[in-house]
């Protein structure tokens, strides 16, 4: 795939991710969103379906220039939240701001700023891939003369040029996902909402998707991604919002997630020497489940991990593998003890 966005000017520095606040820090002075905030925000969102409370008093900040991951178990309210953010579902209570626009009061203006990629693409099966994107361009009132060029741009971006004139009904699941992404990007939105975008993609397409999303964020877009593949979110996200049972549980940057207590996997040429050294250092450990010769330890920070490795080497232990047992976001998620509903 090729990038369809121009690179940032050579003299400019790429946008630096702003710190993602915790729920307690979302509005420390009672102002929400915080003064000067630019991006997507939601406060006090609730939505029920009969007796089912899908979303309860949820909060979210997704700054421009960042990829924000939305993480939670099935049934946590992620899709319901995204539908409300996309102005496709009205909240029972609460407020939303899309780049300063209230999607409840001004849905047309808000939708012009939003690109929505659902977890399952609904397509006009009788239309070709090119015709679908062209139709979407007209729906968003793009200049008629510019639509063909924009369509070609996106076909190249998502590697669907060879299938441009094929009917949508012949597309595989992964190809439909790529078409869904192109459809969401047709009008160059300021805000991109993606529900399980990597579902059905092959490994190469997943890598390309990560590159596209990082490029969009680098150009100042708001990117919100819901996914079950936490390892991939570690690679693309700047911040994460964890939800469970319809509520916001935690919000943090990926850097904050990495610099907290987490498990490290250690392996040495001589497992007995490793165990002895850890015992002498007063470090508790358990044996790994993947490889019998590896051990798992819990370290409080990345600085602590570096110090432990240094101490092991100073003790003469020939360490050949040392690293986090899981990604930072997965570690946070597992530490929350979230139960499936």
UniProtKB/TrEMBL annotation:
One of its GO terms (molecular function) is ATP binding. Keywords: ATP-binding, Nucleotide-binding, Transport. Residues 1-20 have a biased composition (Pro residues). It holds the Pfam family ABC_tran. PROSITE patterns: ABC_TRANSPORTER_2. Belongs to the ABC transporter superfamily. This is Multidrug ABC transporter ATP-binding protein. The lineage of its organism: Bacteria, Bacillati, Actinomycetota, Actinomycetes, Micrococcales.
